[in-house]
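re: ur question from yesterday

yeah so i grabbed the chain u mentioned. its 311 aa long if i counted rite. heres the sequnce exactly as i have it in my notes:
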Amino acid sequence: MNDSFMDLRQIRHFVAVAEELHFGRAAERLGMTQPPLSQSIQALEMDLGLTLFERTRRSVALTPVGREWLPHARRVLEEAVRLPQTAQQLSRGEVGRVRLSFISFVSYSFLPTLVRRFKERFPEVELVLNEATSDVQIAELLDGALDAGIIISPPRGALHPPLSYRPVETDKLVVAVPEEWVISGRVVPQGGKLDFATLCNLPVILFPRRSAPVLHDLVTRYYAEHEAIPFQGQQAVQMQTIINLVSSALGIAFVPSTMRRLIRPGVAYFRLAEQQPEIEIGFAWRVTDASTALQHLADTVAGMFPADGVR
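ran it thru and got these structure tokens back, copy pasting raw so excuse formatting
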């Protein structure tokens, strides 16, 4: 194929001849005379470097390649007709693609409701969901590999243009404990709660600090406030993995209270007798190059959590 550019006019000419299998009727259908139509088809075949039609004095037939190419050509014309409408829909945020990542435990809280509300209003927008830790999300947001993320609130200053951030929810930490430790009396709750004295000598399953510094520091600070250091056991990145490790009696874990909805055999959840540490969950998104569809998602979040501010 040479360097000349194939235009829609040539494709339209090809489809007309392929459907009529007669140059005269195709020319009439297109509102043109037959010689320029024949020249257009010849130029197209020259550009492609192949023959689309077998011609005799009495008949015109598609070659095997022409027959297989016809549905592709029709699709190109159909999409071209829709292009102006698609542009208008994109400008209104009615179609498009939004890449949204989320920390794992929000799938047990507000994420399903957020997705349902957004898709009810904008069913033609593709919402690409991916689970990731907060540190990964922030890096991808800054790199432009991600449009929006649901994250554990980072320290102030960690989020900066082109990102904006809206706090959406706070969650208190509870303790996930191996059920067999409760049965054996190694852990003794009082009124459905556990005090620090019961926990201080038990191994703790923690997030690595590099992946979740806020959550990691919240737990270590809780111990420091009681003049203790956590006896660190296994580390894990995903909440579901941490709960599974608890079920295997490898230690206790401080997790958002939302995780109580994750029922695992061998795991019991308890509130802390002392003041419960809290984490803030927020919605972060790119604002400098935000599509209208992304702004619609941000507006949906704001509608669900109207009392929270943006920073």
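noticed a couple things. The mean pLDDT is 89. also The two ends are 54 Å apart (CA to CA).
anyway ttyl
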